[in-house]
Amino acid sequence: MFDAITLDFVGMIVAALLTIMILSYILGDNKLFRGATHVFIGVAAGYAGAVAWDSVIRPNLVSPIFSEGLGALLDFEMIVAWILVIMLLFKIMPVTAKVGSLPMALLVGVGAAIVLGGAITGTLIPQSRAAMHSLRMSEATSDLGNSAFEHLTNAVILIVGTLCTLIYFRFTTGARDSKLQIIERPMQILRVIGRVFIGITFGAMYAGALMAAIIALAERAQFLGNVISEILGIF
Amino acid sequence: MKFGSYLIWLTVAVGAGIIVLLGYFVDVQMILEARESLMHWAVILAATAVFMGLVNLMMVHWNRISTQSKDWIFSAILVVFMLEMLVLGLIFGPDHKLVLFFFTYVQLPVEISLMAILAVVLVVAGFQLIRRRRDLLSMAFMGSALVVLVGTLPWVIGSESEIVRMLGELRAWLTQVWAVAGARGILLGVALGAAATGLRVIMGVDRPYGD
What we know:
By secondary structure, chain A is mainly alpha-helical. Chain A contains seven helices and no strands. Chain B is mainly α. Chain B folds into two domains: 1-92, no CATH class; 133-204, no CATH class. In chain B, helix 5 crosses helix 7 (162-202).
């Protein structure tokens, strides 16, 4: 009997127990669920630390010193990296936290630029181009219909939906100028249309997420069934 | 002193931000090299920040264990599993079979199970939305969700009847035209918001690193 109990079998039992503990949340928040989530957070945090060490800190800061000796610290990039890391470590203590503000400033500046560049080159330009291209018959895909009328109707829905959704996110105070107040009413109507498009989009996303979750639930049920049959097969 | 240090941090953040941003649009060797170095340092600092986050997590939960505060046992579980995984990962590396054992039989099943209970949570949330809020947004939301769900069900795909065919086409039209229009508007809105936030940091209006 014990020959059949391998490390994989033990792992399977652990996985099944954790699955039951997590699924117990269906009955309401309980200690089993909270225990399993704390195990998960501990393992995930430890794993993240191990990956950060193995793929970034060790090859960039530690390994060069072991392979080339202290001479590696003469490299400009290396010495700056070490100084920045040491300064950042001062952030742990509230008393010395100010020393760590310089590397934080560098991190925030680089991060902001990456976010800004990514938003422009990754979303704003491609999405604007896609919206413009939907109006061109020559670049039409079958998603927008086969006939010219279908294509035109769908292209208008796409453009109106995109613009109205964007207008819905425009949060400004009402115009005091009487001339500008004329456009407030049509803007309100466009915002309502934008709400409908947002509702439809979130509904489609909700349905997609629900179907994926149901598949995960079925997979877990099947896994538990397999574990039970394996246990019955051994004993 | 405060005025001086604030200016140094601001200069570093704005300078680093401008150089990295220029690297997206300008093909000048000096800028590209400076951008590469800045991003290299930022990656190392981000990895160090992960470790500092772990230390902070450890300190918070260690405090709860030492003061025996309510449900301290959960903090003890977290600390034990975190240290165990960290020590194994640091000694053997994240690809070792012992580390992968915990990843495969602890982290993965919990992630899939959390995804699985999302099915129940989403259904309950959907019903509560219909019960408590009956406005235009919720009607559009539930109508769209029902069409997509019914139009994707296996019996709908397998059947050849006219109603089922029309339902499938309605689902395709809704997801490929109406939902795409809304999603594109949301994406553009998010990108505009992200770009505005990034610009505020690069222009020195927002200073999350301290004053």
